[in-house]
Structure formats: structure tokens, C-alpha cells
């Protein structure tokens, strides 16, 4: 596929007709609300496509602001439309609202104790990726912009997206389904902005990268068929657990010996293996699931091809059979360079130039990439680690922790970016020729 290619160039002397109005009083008034919203959502997390109470909370808030609200978008998504008093372009702002099947270990007054069912198992549920902060931040942005609609030249579309972590098996969901249901149309979006909190970036810091920013993600399922036998007589059977171990080892050689890592990073991870029922039985089958992360489309194609070849060949070498099914999850998160150039002065003004840092691409993935295929997009990272902290925990872990003091900068940044973009004289254009890299 080909990245979206910018066709409009922006001149720093003409991109902004007026800076955003001074909203410091509004920001000061909203901070406590945003923190309270975030803590309430954190304490009451819901898994993808099941965010019923979260969606109800969002919709109620948007309606109270006089914003036109559409619910049940892509199952549980909420979309708000705020028309300014002056005509103009359309900017979209996105927040994801789903939680993860993770049991929280933090000792917080608003700790999650929620449990649910995931893939047939009882699990804890936790906002272990910070989507609770994204939701609260965008609720705050909506309130400030609604209070200042007389200053808005154009329209703001608020997209509260479910199932960013992926819908349940057998269901559609997330950004892809929202796009299919027309969320980027009626009115057509001219640009879209989004952010992601980061537990390992200090509060007050914003990180960004033009171009390819986050990896394309794929999931895979490998099914291994052996021959069951008594554990004391392995020669009478074919061990699918042994074959699985050899497959896992072999897959890593695709990365270490075949992927051109000086070009871009790539990852193959087996996240779950299931086989057997008893200590003295060699089982008949095994199943593995995992993820592939790539930042280059040629590398993705090569890895996909070699995985399927290697899985079948290794299984055959040990007397078994195996299949490998690969599914698409996200595309490359691609920040239009000219849009980044256009909005960078705004971010630097809000956060301070010294706090806005260029970063390298990362192998994490975001389905925000599907919105970016429909309109120029800019996705950036917001610091959520307490300054001076010597130990921070990664996303998707039971100890994941965010400092609430970082939320207000997110509110300010998205608000000011929206107003500055709508006041700008230029509108980005994109080409959807997806043939190259």
C-alpha cells in the first residue's frame, strides 16, 4: 500500500490567520473535572465493543454542552458534532475508550476491581493503556470548545472510538468499522488529530514524528497437528508441543537473519500457546497466537510469506502438520509531514519548545491509522510519568500508572490545535494512490 502523499505545501507566514483566543480561565476550570472523569472511567473499565456505561457517560456530557450526538456508532462509539458560529473546515478529534483484560496491581483509591470474560476466561479489566485519560481529555476539550463556539470557524467532530485494542473474535469494530459506517463523512473531515498518553515520558513533554510513526499490526494463529500418545512413549506419537517450540524458535530467525533491520524495525511475538491436559499425555494438537509488527510494507510481505512457509515446513520435518493464518489489525500510523509542519508551532507554543521532542518510530500499533487513510492526520504522544520518577511501568501491564497532572496539557494542545487549524488559510490535500511505500 502507498502512504498518503501530501499535495499541499504550507508557508509559515500564511498558515495561521489568527492565534487561538486566550482560554486560560477555561483551562483552569476544567482540570479538576478532567481528572475526576478519568478516575471514574478508570474505576469502571469496559472491554472493546462492550463500553456501554462509558459511552453513556460520554453522550450525556456532550448533550449537556449542546453538541449534536450520535450513539451506537461501530457498536458503542459516540460521535459529537460542534458547529462554530462561522463557516469553515472540519477538524476531527479522536479518543479511544476501551480497556484491556488485565488485573490491576496498583494501590489506588480508584483502582479497578472489575472482572469480565475474555476468550472464555474470567479476567480482570483495567485501563492499562491510558484510554481512560484520552476519553477524559477529549471530554474536556469538548466542554471548552462548546463554551467558545462563537470563536470557532468551521466544525469540530469528536470521535469516541470503541475497541481500539481489537474487537472480540467474530465481531467487527474499532476505527475500521467507524470508517465503514461513515464517521469521516457528513461532514467530510479535512484533518484529524489524536494523542496517546505515555507512562514512560515525563509529564509536560510531547513527542512526535512526521511520516511513519507506529507500526502496522497483524495477528496470527498457528495450529499444529501431531499424534497423541502416552508421555512415557514419545516414539509412538508426534509431539505438537515440541513442534511448537521449534516453530517459535524458527520464526525469530526471520527477524534476526532475513529482515533488513537497518531499514525499519520488525517484530514477531508469540503471545499464547495452548496444548495438553495432563502431565503424562502427549497431546494431539497445539495452538499459538501472536502478533507481527512492521514499519515497511515490503518487509511485511516478506515476513508473511516466510512465516507460512516455515510453519508448514518445520511441522513436516518433525512428522506433524501446521497451518498459519495471518490477519490484518492496523496499517502504518502515518503523520502527514506538511500537516505536522503546520501544527508544530501550535504545540510548541502550548507546551514550550524545549518540551516538544522529535522521536523515532515505534513498533506499537494504532488503528488511528485507518482514519489517516481518509484524511491527513497527526498523532502524537503526551507525557504521563511523574517527573523525576526512576521506575515507570510499560503499557499493557498490571502496574501501568499515569500521573493525572499531565492531562491538562493534552486538553490545551488538542483545543489549540483545533482552533489554529480551523483558522488556518490552507487545507491539506492527499493522494490515495496506495501502490508504493
Keywords:
6-stranded mixed beta sheet, disordered C terminus, 437 residues, alpha/beta, disordered N terminus, 8-stranded mixed beta sheet, 31% helix
Please tell me about this protein's structure.
With 437 residues, this protein is of the alpha/beta class. Helix content is 31%, strand content 29%. It contains nine helices and 20 strands. It is elongated and about 80 Å long.
Radius of gyration: 23 Å
What is the overall pLDDT average?
92
* Unreliable runs: 1-19, 431-437
Note the total helix count: 9
Q: For the terminal residues, how far apart are their CA atoms?
A: 6 Å
H-E string: EHHEEEEEHEHEEEEHEEEHEEHEEHEHE
Percent of residues in helical segments?
25-40%
- Give the overall shape: elongated
Largest β sheet strand count, sense and barrel closure: 8 strands, mixed
Helical/strand content category: alpha/beta
Strand order of the largest sheet: 2-3-7-4-8-19-9-17
Number of strands: 20
Beta-strand fraction estimate: 25-35%
Short structural description:
Helix content is 31%, strand content 29%. The chain has 9 helices and 20 strands.
Amino acid at each position: 500500500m502507498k502512504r498518503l502523499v501530501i499535495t499541499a505545501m504550507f508557508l509559515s507566514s500564511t498558515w495561521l490567520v489568527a492565534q487561538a483566543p486566550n482560554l486560560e480561565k477555561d483551562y483552569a476550570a476544567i482540570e479538576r473535572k478532567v481528572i475526576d472523569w478519568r478516575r471514574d472511567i478508570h474505576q469502571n473499565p469496559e472491554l472493546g465493543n462492550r463500553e456501554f456505561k462509558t459511552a453513556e457517560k460520554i453522550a450525556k456530557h456532550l448533550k449537556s454542552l449542546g453538541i449534536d450526538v450520535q450513539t451506537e456508532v461501530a457498536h458503542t462509539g459516540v460521535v459529537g458534532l460542534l458547529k462554530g458560529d462561522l463557516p469553515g473546515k472540519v477538524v476531527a478529534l479522536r479518543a479511544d475508550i476501551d480497556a484491556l483484560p488485565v488485573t490491576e496491581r496498583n494501590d489506588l483509591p480508584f483502582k479497578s476491581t472489575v472482572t469480565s470474560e475474555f476468550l472464555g476466561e474470567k479476567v480482570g479489566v483495567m485501563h492499562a493503556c491510558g484510554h481512560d485519560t484520552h476519553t477524559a481529555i477529549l471530554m474536556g476539550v469538548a466542554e471548552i470548545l462548546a463554551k467558545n463556539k462563537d470563536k470557532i470557524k468551521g466544525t469540530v467532530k469528536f470521535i469516541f472510538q470503541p475497541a481500539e485494542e481489537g474487537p472480540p473474535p467474530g465481531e467487527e469494530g474499532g476505527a475500521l468499522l467507524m470508517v465503514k459506517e461513515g464517521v469521516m463523512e457528513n461532514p467530510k473531515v479535512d484533518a484529524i488529530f489524536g494523542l496517546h498518553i505515555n507512562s514512560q515520558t515525563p509529564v509536560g513533554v510531547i513527542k512526535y514524528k512526521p511520516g511513519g510513526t507506529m507500526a502496522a499490526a497483524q495477528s496470527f494463529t498457528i495450529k499444529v497437528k501431531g499424534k497423541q500418545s502416552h508421555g512415557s512413549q514419545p516414539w509412538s506419537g508426534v509431539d505438537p508441543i515440541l513442534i511448537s517450540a521449534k516453530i517459535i524458535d524458527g520464526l525469530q530467525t526471520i527477524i534476526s537473519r532475513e529482515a533488513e533491520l537497518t531499514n525499519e524495525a520488525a517484530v514477531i511475538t508469540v503471545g499464547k500457546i495452548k496444548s495438553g491436559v495432563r502431565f503424562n499425555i502427549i497431546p494431539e494438537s497445539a495452538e499459538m497466537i501472536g502478533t507481527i509488527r512492521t514499519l515497511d510494507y515490503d518487509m511485511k510481505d516478506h515476513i508473511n510469506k516466510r512465516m507460512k512457509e516455515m510453519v508448514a515446513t518445520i511441522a513436516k520435518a518433525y512428522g506433524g502438520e501446521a497451518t498459519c493464518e495471518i490477519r490484518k489489525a492496523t496499517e502504518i500510523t502515518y503523520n502527514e509531514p506538511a500537516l505536522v509542519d503546520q501544527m508544530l508551532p501550535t504545540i510548541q507554543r502550548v507546551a514550550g519548545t524545549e518540551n516538544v521532542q522529535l522521536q523515532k518510530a515505534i513498533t506499537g500499533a494504532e488503528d488511528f491509522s485507518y482514519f489517516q487513510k481518509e484524511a491527513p492526520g497527526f498523532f502524537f504522544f503526551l507525557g504521563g510519568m511523574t517527573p523525576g520518577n526512576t521506575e515507570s511501568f510499560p503499557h499493557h501491564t498490571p502496574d501501568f500508572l499515569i500521573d493525572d497532572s499531565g492531562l491538562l496539557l493534552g486538553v490545551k494542545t488538542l483545543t489549540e490545535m483545533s482552533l489554529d487549524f480551523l483558522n488556518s488559510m490552507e487545507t491539506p490535500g492527499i493522494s490515495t494512490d496506495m501502490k508504493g511505500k
